[in-house]
Write a structure and sequence with these properties.
Elements (H helix, E strand, L loop, with lengths): L4 H8 L22 E7 L32 E8 L33 H9 L8 E3 L28 H9 L6 H23 L7 H26 L19 H17 L5 E5 L3 H6 L6 H5 L5 H27 L11 E8 L12 E7 L7 E10 L1 H10 L20
Parallel strand pairs: 1-4, 1-5, 2-7, 3-4
Antiparallel strand pairs: 2-6, 5-6
Length: 417
Amino acid sequence: MKLNRRKFLAGAGSLLCLPQLESFGAAEAAPAPARLVFLGFGYGFTDHFYPKTFGKDYKLTPSLVSLEKHKSDFSMINNLYHQHSKSPHSGSESYLTGADVLGTPGKKFHNSISVDQVAAPVMGRDTRYTSLQLSSSDNDGHGRGSSLAWNASGKSMSGINSSFALFNMLFGGGAMNYEERMAMLQQSKSVLDAYVGSIKSMRPHTSRMDNERLDQYFQSLREIEVRIGKEKLWAKKPKPIVDYKLPDVERNGVDEIRTMYELMVLAMQTDSSRVFTYRQPLGGLLKAIGLTANPHELSHWGTSEANVKANFQRELKQTELLSHFFDRLKETKDVDGSRIFDNCLVSYGSNIRSGHGISNVPAFIAGNIDNRLKHGQHLEMPKNSPLCNLWLTMLQTAGIQVGSFSDSTGTISELLA
């Protein structure tokens, strides 16, 4: 018997969010949307992490063993760097922007827009959240800002610092009706307006440097205002109901990263957002696997056998978690029945290669969009190729109409199918 999905949904009212079923036929299935994910962490890897051979027959190192089953679905790229990167301790400041954050005359610090925020207005136009900035209270190796993302004014975008907060943002508040949600949002807007007014009154009495700090703070408040405005537009549409246990408030380290990955997959599955950044913790991860050294201490591994072994444990856990993320993206079906992994690009890396070296940074890219990329290779690019060439390649592969990004000199043609 041929089933009619539209009639079934009309009869069910708004009680259920029915998944796409084969029995209803494929004609009504919407095309799967593209997604972009940017994952970053501080202090890089040890030299022992990186493969020594190139091409399609390259050999993964012991640190990468967890990714062996995904080898044909990701690529590693050698010799990328940021020409303006100055500090190994402040990796997140320019990682996704490519900006010369310390080189603007008359400014102590000035950034530019990050690659995710170039994509967000286009890719996030029809989603509840234009983009999601995941972060943590662990700031090891990240520097200024509260996430990897920087807006069009070069100001840091607020990060979501826990899986508990992310879960509640995506799926919480389901018991409120439309009037209650609107009242809550209006109250938030009123409080915000009053707060902005009181802060503005401080300006005549503050220094130039303090005014710059206030500008950054005002930008964060404006982002909240924009978010409240978009939430008002979505207020009549209930948040998705998912079969997932609410994370514990005190998760950290390994469990926190794994849960953030799980929630990103759920956010894609429910089409809550299509653009993600995640500034990952290191200190909590080290503690969770029984290591007492801090991340900065371990980054100076040098000839210390103990530090090399500790870093190897850390690298194994990081790639194990990344492999699990890929597993979940491959297991989860998209709206058209394909794997979410096949409609998603994931980058993974750091501003440091090894020790405190800021050239030839680690660069992974996984996933695909319309089979536009070819994977299973370790590419050796010309020395000091811009990392922004990778960001430009990802933007164009996701359908963003841009000819350049930051200091890019072109796309990475070796990645293109």
